[in-house]
């Protein structure tokens, strides 16, 4: 192409096309199980464009997000648009990946719709004497058709010109905007004028010529409902015209010269097509087939975190044996044969089926085993309607016809028990802690040694994807297992697993262990190349037994005190409601967000309200906090009321029901593979959310008590994340302050503001403390200003002064962001990969959030690694010391123990020594301990 050749720009409406392709093509999945029918359609279309050389320049235009300037004009714009189908959501990112793989520019801009960018580029090209082809069938783009601008239907491969527009709208393209303004758009929630459809609108345009002329003529029209609507809704029509008009003055993020058509990098493109499983397209384009090299024919690693991130080490292709049919084991002889086979191969996958989700109360219904891919069985133990073998007489035909029988639980566990503790046989679980608790409660010895596929995946891919078995199976095996809902039903029709027909239970349960074994075969070999082997074997796997013991132990609660707290909270809430009603000027349901929104924004007229999709005002905590920060009293009182209501329902009331009636101990469940940083979380009860520094939070903690004759001991890492920051960012001043045992916040205030530490003003120290902790979480000037009650400009000056004094922190932050962008993850000081989805997102807000995650994850994840190291070592240390104490809880950076009175000093010294030596840093770890008869006094 010569430099003087006229430009022919092809603009692909990427956001519009993906919906068309999704609904036009049958379901398809990539080798990793990800839906790809829309991606396949898009890829074929892009390949055809490049092959046919229909233009000189090419770009794909995407929507950057739902919120644009139109939402500021009309807050209900697109408010009723439903969420995309589940099978479509993962394909949005893959279409962007496809664009990059072809070497085609992908363009989007925050605050603007793809249609606006298309309009702007079309104007830019035609003004330069070129022409533009828009690859889309979106009616909203038809207003752009004119000499030099045409459209092409990407699925039907037919041009769309003025004749097609007139057939659709009844007007020429230059009048489409006026027609759309009159009829509105129910999909985008453009209001229009009630009662006017396309035919009426086109007839009015034909008669009067334009929207303005129609509205001006309306009062003189013959009396009718249509005339009344045109008069009453004239402003809505004008607003609708503004909403549907595409902005040709929108930005063009990339100059035209960067949109020149270029041949794709064949190696990059063929590799991507192979990973997607688009083998036919590889051959059709004459590319080298790299499927064998990347293992695509049978398996692919999960998609990279963003387009530029290299994939992790891919697991080897799993065995392709079919999933089932599986054997139902009904006799002791058959079970003994399976046990012998497990001993021969040296490993087996194990799974339990129960009649509930709480492992400390659920009954054992059945057990499944797998010894090779496709070689799995189910042992029914407590299915209703199936008699136990021991209950039948010989004449019932036990030996000859065992169908319909099941082994008693005790008999099955007597056979399985020696296998569970055989050191030569590895027992493989998915979420082992649950199964260990179920099995030991049923009377089995605790299985050892074990592996856990959930934790094997988590050690490598925390934050990249979920670690549930079904998701891992789809990602790494390309197989969707039978779901629990398929065998038990849903909603009111759900039946207990004990009532599931044994044949269906076998297909479901045996498949679970088959999948678990295949996942182990696929994922365990990647631990070493992904540098996660030590993390898994030294931390995650041994922690399973530690946490299981903690959950069995539970912690005692004072039920009487909890009931007293509940009554007190209820009384205080009643008093607060009276004050809230006085401030509102009338009574209303304080717990109703809808009624509260009407009070705040309709009746009181407070500024800053935003309506949600439902049409109701948004009144979440961020909205109320903003209003409170502006000096409005009512929102602040509502926040205080909500906090009290949460404490009452979540703790004061719920803990009474969660306490074991016999022991009055509650048994929280620790979640091992939820967070992206390695931190543990807990539920039922969630102990992470009890307020630490409020009076009410202290009263909740006071209800957690020691057993008679014992004390609670709390051991808490002091400022561990700041110490890690000083270590990883190599900050001499902070390292020195920690080494000297100085008040770190006073030292920071002294360094930043140039003030002496002695006699430090408490307000200045508080500001330095807010900066110290805020920096870890990527706080903005606005956030710091709101926290300190100062203008954002003043807060920005504090942050700038902080970075000027500690430039190493800025260097660390930049380094983490670059590491995340390059790899898709950051690592803790101990090698844990914390994946950061969204680090390459084109949306600025999502990208900024991901960058804050990248900065904080090595610190929060490092703290999690350190406390896990201590937890793994502590039980053995306590046993070796002969102390009557046990670990009960882990909450953030704190461990809580129960210890016999008189032994607390020895336990405190031992715990402090182990926790402080859990990691060798350039900054000393410090642990603070305390004891008391309740958690509040010990903390």
UniProtKB/TrEMBL annotation:
Species of origin: Gluconacetobacter takamatsuzukensis
Biological process per Gene Ontology, one example term: DNA-templated DNA replication
Name under which the protein is recorded: DNA polymerase I
Chain intervals for the UniProt region annotation (Disordered): 302-325
Record text on subunit structure and interactions: Single-chain monomer with multiple functions.
Chain ranges of the DNA-directed DNA polymerase family A palm domain: 697-903
Keyword terms of this UniProt record: DNA damage, DNA repair, DNA replication, DNA-binding, DNA-directed DNA polymerase, Exonuclease, Hydrolase, Nuclease, Nucleotidyltransferase, Transferase
Chemical reaction(s) catalysed: DNA(n) + a 2'-deoxyribonucleoside 5'-triphosphate = DNA(n+1) + diphosphate
Lineage: Bacteria, Pseudomonadati, Pseudomonadota, Alphaproteobacteria, Acetobacterales
Position of the signal peptide: none
């Amino acid at each position: 192409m010569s430099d003087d050749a006229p430009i022919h720009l092809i603009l692909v409406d990427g956001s519009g096309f993906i919906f068309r392709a999704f609904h036009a093509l049958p379901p398809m999945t990539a080798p990793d199980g990800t839906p790809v029918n829309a991606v396949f359609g898009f890829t074929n279309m892009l390949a055809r464009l490049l092959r046919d050389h229909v233009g000189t320049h090419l770009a794909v235009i995407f929507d950057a997000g739902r919120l644009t300037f139109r939402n500021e004009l009309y807050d209900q714009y697109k408010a009723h648009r439903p969420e995309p189908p589940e099978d479509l959501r993962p394909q949005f990112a893959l279409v962007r990946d496809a664009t990059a793989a072809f070497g085609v520019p992908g363009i989007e801009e925050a605050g603007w719709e793809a249609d606006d960018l298309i309009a702007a580029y079309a104007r830019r090209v035609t003004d330069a004497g070129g022409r533009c082809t828009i690859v889309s069938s979106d009616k909203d783009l038809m207003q752009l058709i004119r000499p030099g601008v045409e459209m092409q239907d990407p699925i039907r491969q037919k041009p769309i010109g003025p004749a097609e527009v007139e057939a659709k709208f009844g007007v020429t393209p230059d009048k489409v905007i006026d027609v759309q303004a009159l009829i509105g758009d129910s999909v985008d929630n453009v209001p229009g004028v009630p009662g006017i459809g396309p035919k009426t609108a086109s007839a009015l345009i034909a008669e009067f010529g334009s929207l303005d002329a129609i509205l001006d003529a309306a009062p003189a029209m013959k009396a009718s409902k249509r005339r009344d609507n045109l008069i009453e809704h004239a402003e809505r029509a004008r607003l609708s015209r503004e909403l549907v008009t595409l902005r040709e003055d929108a930005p063009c993020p990339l100059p035209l010269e960067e949109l020149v058509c270029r041949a794709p990098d064949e190696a990059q493109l063929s590799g991507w097509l192979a990973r997607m499983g688009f083998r036919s397209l590889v051959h059709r384009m004459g590319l080298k087939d790299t499927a064998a090299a990347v293992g695509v024919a049978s398996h692919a690693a999960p998609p990279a975190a963003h387009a530029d991130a290299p994939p992790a080490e891919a697991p080897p292709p799993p065995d392709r044996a079919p999933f089932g049919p599986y054997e139902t084991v009904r006799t002791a002889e058959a079970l003994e044969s399976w046990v012998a086979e497990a001993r021969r191969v040296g490993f087996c996958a194990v799974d339990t089926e129960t009649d509930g989700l709480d492992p400390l109360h659920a009954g054992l219904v059945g057990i499944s085993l797998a010894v090779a891919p496709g070689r799995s069985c189910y042992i029914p133990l407590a299915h209703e309607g199936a008699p136990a073998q021991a209950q039948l007489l010989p004449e019932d035909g036990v030996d000859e016809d065992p169908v319909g029988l099941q082994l008693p639980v005790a008999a099955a566990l007597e056979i399985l028990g020696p296998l569970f503790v055989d050191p030569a046989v590895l027992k493989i679980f998915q979420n082992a802690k649950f199964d260990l608790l179920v099995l030991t409660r049923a009377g089995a010895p605790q299985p050892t040694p074990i592996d856990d596929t959930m934790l094997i995946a988590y050690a490598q891919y925390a934050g990249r994807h979920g670690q549930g078995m079904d998701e891992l199976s789809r990602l790494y095996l390309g197989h969707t297992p039978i779901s629990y809902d398929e065998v038990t039903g849903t909603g009111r029709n759900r039946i207990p697993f004990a009532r599931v027909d044994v044949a269906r239970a076998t297909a479901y349960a045996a498949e679970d262990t088959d999948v678990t074994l295949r996942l182990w075969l696929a994922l365990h070999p990647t631990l070493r190349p992904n540098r996660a082997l030590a993390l898994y074997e030294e931390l995650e796997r041994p922690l399973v037994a530690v946490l299981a013991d903690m959950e069995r132990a539970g912690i005692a609660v004072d039920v009487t005190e909890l009931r007293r707290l509940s009554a007190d909270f209820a009384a205080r809430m009643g008093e607060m409601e009276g004050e809230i009603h006085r401030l509102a000027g009338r009574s209303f349901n304080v717990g109703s967000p809808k009624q509260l929104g009407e009070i705040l924004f309709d009746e009181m007229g407070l500024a800053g309200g935003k309506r949600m999709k439902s049409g109701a005002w948004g009144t979440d905590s961020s909205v109320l906090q903003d209003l409170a920060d502006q000096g409005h009293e009512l929102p602040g009182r509502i926040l205080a009321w909500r906090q009290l209501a949460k404490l009452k329902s979540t703790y004061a009331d719920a803990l009474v029901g969660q306490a074991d009636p016999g022991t009055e101990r509650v048994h929280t469940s620790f979640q091992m593979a939820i967070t992206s940083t390695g931190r543990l979380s807990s539920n039922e009860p969630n102990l992470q959310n009890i307020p630490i520094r409020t009076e009410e939070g202290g009263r909740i903690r006071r209800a957690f008590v020691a057993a008679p004759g014992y004390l609670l001991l709390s051991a808490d890492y002091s400022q561990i994340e700041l110490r890690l920051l000083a270590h990883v960012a190599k900050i001499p001043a902070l390292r020195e302050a920690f080494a000297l045992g100085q008040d770190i916040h006073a030292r920071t205030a002294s360094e930043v503001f140039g003030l002496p530490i002695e006699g430090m003003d408490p307000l200045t120290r508080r500001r330095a403390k807010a900066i110290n902790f805020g920096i870890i979480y990527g706080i903005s000037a606005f956030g710091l200003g709101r926290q300190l009650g100062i203008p954002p400009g003043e807060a920005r000056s504090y942050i700038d002064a902080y970075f000027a004094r500690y430039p190493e922190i800025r260097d660390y932050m930049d380094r983490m962001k670059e590491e995340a962008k390059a790899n898709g993850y950051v690592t803790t000081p101990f090698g844990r990969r914390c994946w950061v989805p969204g680090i390459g997102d084109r949306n600025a807000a999502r990208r900024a959030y991901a960058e804050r995650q990248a900065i904080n994850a090595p610190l929060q994840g490092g703290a999690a690694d350190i406390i896990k190291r201590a937890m793994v070592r502590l039980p053995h240390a306590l046993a070796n010391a002969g102390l009557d104490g046990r670990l009960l809880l882990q909450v953030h950076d704190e461990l809580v123990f129960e210890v016999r009175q008189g032994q607390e000093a020895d336990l405190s010294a031992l715990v402090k020594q182990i926790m402080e030596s859990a990691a060798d840093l350039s900054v000393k770890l410090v642990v603070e301990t305390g004891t008391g008869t309740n958690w509040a006094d010990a903390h």
